[in-house]
Amino acid sequence: MHTFISAHNLNTFLNTLIAAGTRVVAPRLNAGTVLYEPLQNAAELVLDQLPRRSGKEAFFPLCEDIMSYRKEGQQVTLQTVDPALFPETVLFGVRPCDAAAVPVLDAVFSWDYQDEFFLERRRKTTVIGLACTSADDACFCTAVGLSPAATAGSDLFLTPMSGGGYRCAACTEKGEALLQQHRGLFSPSSDHEPLPLAEPQVERIDLARVKAWLDTHFEDPAWDGIATRCVGCGLCAFVCPACHCFDIVDEGTEKAGKRRKNWDACGFWKFTHHASGHNPRDQQPKRYRNRIMHKFKYYDDKFGQTLCTGCGRCIRLCPVGIDIAAIVDEISTK
Ligand code: SF4
Ligand code: SF4
Description:
This protein is α/β, with parallel strands linked by helices. The chain has one domain (2-332). Helices cover 29% and strands 21% of the residues. Helix 6 crosses helix 9 (284-303) and helix 6 (207-216) packs across helix 11. 37% of the residues are buried. Bound molecules: iron/sulfur cluster (SF4) (2 copies). One iron/sulfur cluster binds at residues 236, 239-242, 295, 308-314, 324.
């Protein structure tokens, strides 16, 4: 069922959460760049731009400590991080392409190993999605089966209205519970219509055809052409809402240090570099092939969907202009 919240009441809603100690992570300006970050006040919100990086950091930080150690004489002290201490969080203003990546990550982090660092944050987070009213040339959510109004991954979903304020729909019990806690700020309906939604200018890509080609073309001369420009900077993985590779590294000395979980990227030359010195992906095209294979074949083999939500960030930001939508579209015609 839909309900309505005015812009003023929305600010009150967020400020009430912040005052109560809830971590509210939302798009805000940081040194000229919009990022999903904890708000001090709802006045900091910037809702007219897709944040530069995705919302996955609310559950899966770029870098986090897992434990620390200290050695004094023969005595070694370990200090672990207790996920139970992670704060209750509302991830607010999440675009459909970012929200849809949340269940994609859930599947990975609860598959063969229950990653309590990710899962405890997920349990404690309510995701409030926001419909998109503008798209640029890089957006292609519709090509991968999503839309500017897709509610996948959202607990509550807001749609901007022509007269101001937002239509609000609860998509899960968690969302409904949050809505009921703040019922007084919502009204039954609005006299206005929703603002027109964004219209990404990309046709639906036949992902079944893409996968069928990938299933049979691990070795193909096309890979050399597809990724010769890639410089292996890893940016595409770091800005992606669905990429989730990480490395666990011990940092410190024999006396003291930390075990940390850091994002990794298959574009990096060391990504599969073995201790023996052998690297099965010893050239950049092999590494870029892995990116495409993982997103449109391996993840699909395991979890039945693609690992790309069409947010377009990797297209906008790739320093050498590699366009994953164009590559996948071309594969779909082979
Ligand atoms: S952002 Fe571009 S250059 Fe950098 S790793 Fe990704 S595809 Fe390669
Ligand atoms: S692969 Fe590129 S377009 Fe697809 S979800 Fe990741 S960053 Fe967005």
